[in-house]
């Protein structure tokens, strides 16, 4: 009986709840009802009549749900500074999803070292997931890459990539979350 009590006490200690003022508890509270944005999780596309079901939110809602840098890049077509993104040197195996809506966009197998300072891929997971549009800002004609579900700005695509596609998807780390596999 004495042993049982000791074991119970030990078990209880191991499973002791975190103090309420710990950062883990604070972020879990923030994350639940007020912030429905998935972070680091895959939310697959849904289709109706062969078209991807879109996520549409007002600017105010995006502003609430994204952090300042995500809002600037995803919703205002901003660009993070070269060589600053946290996914630039990520060589793990996994899936890169849209930081706005969790749609899988790129696979680690298609990531390559472009030397440009931004994560670079030679193709998306599926053409359905990416929307291209011409961007004539900064005096250049470039092809902008957006998430096909939420319209979040990802980066640009250039015709100077490696085989087999010859394309270089130049993507902001801020626009992506990584799901390790
Ligand atoms: Zn998205």
**DSSP strand count:** 11
Whole-number count of domains: 1
Main sheet properties: 6 strands, antiparallel
Task: Please name the CATH topology.
Answer: Metal Binding Protein, Guanine Nucleotide Exchange Factor, Chain A
Helix content: 10-25%
Strand content: 15-25%
Mean pLDDT: 84
Unreliable parts:
1-36
Helix-strand category? alpha+beta
CATH class: Mainly Beta
Strands side by side in the biggest sheet: 5-6-10-9-8-7
- In CATH, the architecture is Beta Complex
Bound molecules: zinc ion
- Global shape: globular
Spatial separation of the terminal alpha carbons = 45 Å
Total helical segments: 4
Q: What would you report as the Rg, rounded to the nearest angstrom?
A: 20 Å
CATH superfamily: Peptide methionine sulfoxide reductase
Write down the secondary-structure element order: HHEEHHEEEEEEEEE
Walkthrough of the structure:
This protein is α+β, with helices and mostly antiparallel strands and 181 residues long. Helices cover 21% and strands 24% of the residues. It has a 6-stranded antiparallel β-sheet with strand order 5-6-10-9-8-7. It has a 3-stranded antiparallel β-sheet with strand order 4-3-11, with no helix packed on it. A two-stranded antiparallel ribbon has the order 1-2. The N and C termini lie far apart (45 Å). Bound molecules: zinc ion (ZN).
């Amino acid at each position: 009986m004495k042993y049982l009590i000791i074991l119970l006490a030990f078990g209880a200690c191991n499973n002791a709840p975190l103090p309420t003022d710990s950062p883990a508890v604070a972020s879990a509270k923030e994350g639940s009802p007020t912030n429905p944005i998935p972070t680091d999780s895959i939310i697959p596309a849904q289709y109706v009549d062969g078209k991807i079901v879109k996520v549409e939110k007002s600017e105010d809602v995006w502003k609430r749900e994204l952090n300042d840098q995500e809002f600037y890049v995803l919703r205002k077509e901003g660009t993070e500074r070269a060589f600053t993104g946290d996914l630039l040197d990520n060589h793990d195996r996994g899936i890169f999803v849209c930081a706005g809506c969790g749609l899988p966009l790129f696979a680690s197998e298609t990531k390559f070292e472009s030397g440009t300072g931004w994560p670079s891929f030679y193709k998306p997971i599926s053409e359905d997931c990416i929307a291209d549009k011409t961007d004539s800002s900064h005096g250049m004609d470039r092809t902008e890459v957006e998430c096909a579900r939420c319209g979040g700005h990802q980066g640009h695509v250039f015709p100077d990539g490696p085989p087999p596609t010859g394309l270089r998807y130049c993507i902001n780390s801020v626009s992506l979350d990584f799901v390790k596999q």
